[in-house]
Amino acid sequence: MKKKVVYICRECSYKSPRWLGKCPNCNAWNSFDETIDDAGARRSSTGKSINSASVVKLSEISTDKQYRIHTRIKELDRVLGGGIVPGSIVLVGGDPGIGKSTLMLQMCFGIAEQNPLYVTGEESLQQIKYRALRIKDIYEELDILAETNLETIVNAIKISGANVIVVDSIQSVFSELIDATPGSITQVRECATHLQQLAKKHNKAIFLIGHVNKDGAIAGPKILEHLVDTVIQFEGEKTYSYRILRALKNRYGSTNEIGIFEMSENGLIEVSNPSEVFLTGRNDFASGITIASIMEGSRPILLEVQSLVTPTNYGMPQRVSNGFDNRRLQMILAVLEKRLGIPFSHNDVFVNIAGGVYLNDASADLAVAIALVSSFKDIAIDAKTVFIGEIGLTGEVRSVASIEQRIAEADKLGFERVFFPTGNASKILKKFSVKLEPIERISALFHHLF
Ligand code: TYD
Ligand code: MG
Q1: Rounded to the nearest whole angstrom, what is the distance from the C-alpha of residue 425 to the centroid of ligand 1?
Q2: What is the pLDDT of residue 116?
Q3: Which of 56, 182, 258, 420 could form a disulfide with 388 if both were Cys (CB 3.0 to 4.6 A apart)?
Q4: pTM to 2 decimals?
């Protein structure tokens, strides 16, 4: 079969039959790599006889619980779906300097019995040692290989007897057998494919650390996301020490769970009680501050919502939100303006979620709305009050999921009052010491508080 040359954009994987200076899809300049389009050839070269197809009955497929390797890091296990699955391949993404190498190194320290192997293509052995020296509880016998040549790495994996391998980073690995420059999309894809087959064949778990390009996508890359079983992403603001680990894709678990860490002087520390970390613990709030109770996966987290509403001096009023969806903010403002008659259209509005967290939960609407009104009226809200509820376009407060867990978290942390959707009231069976205040419409709450 004749091999066809195609050009693929390094940034967004756009394919073109000719080389282009600028990608028509993502507008990146000079991002095309030449590669051989051998998809057709590969399909016909699997060498399998068509008679060997093994069809099985659904009922015959066994569903033994997947064996998992538990790392000593609970927050990581949770995001992976309960631990490392042998034979799986995981892509670890995140901005440079966020802590990917540290997380992977700490994971290796916690699974000594799996004979982990850490392959470094980016840093020298000394750099790895310096990083390790900052971390407590290290595993002195950890195998480390400073190598970028795929064939050498594969060989080392086969003879090392390691069950878990970290490759830091996949972009640094190249194969001599492939005629493309190291770091190019062809190299990255082929090396990752090779490692994936190795993982499956020998039942080893392989973690690939991947760089993130300027738009936050894992570079080279959409292709890698399809190839691996799980994609986890390490996020956080550089200025905060908190880091959030999320699964963007997981063939072996939910993508709702998050892991929370703090980068300390001695490596990453797990944060198992996030609410206590994200709340300031102050007893008096300035105007514009409220507490929301949101769910991240199966965990409730209490967060501080801050807002500032100031008269617009000239031109278009600004709407700036940090950690909250801007369109959702616009909607809440429109509802407040229409239903409560508050003239936000003459005001600049700023919303900030404390701690560098991104709120992706409509149940925080009520907390955001009350924070906005509180700032507008310059009337502070009691610091021991929590707001739960989604806001609908008619100003109704809509029910949310997991109401008991959200209230329980507020109760546990010593809050005194919770406003929540009336529609949820029948779902609350437990007794709480926090005072429960069901609320049907935003207007009723407004008259109650202001
Ligand atoms: P690193 O794991 O090298 O990030 P990545 O692999 O994602 O590029 O972590 C880099 C940052 O973390 C670096 O700025 C130093 C900081 N750090 C600490 O603050 N404490 C520590 O104990 C360690 C190991 C790193
Ligand atoms: Mg690194």
Answers
A1: 46
A2: 96
A3: 420
A4: 0.77
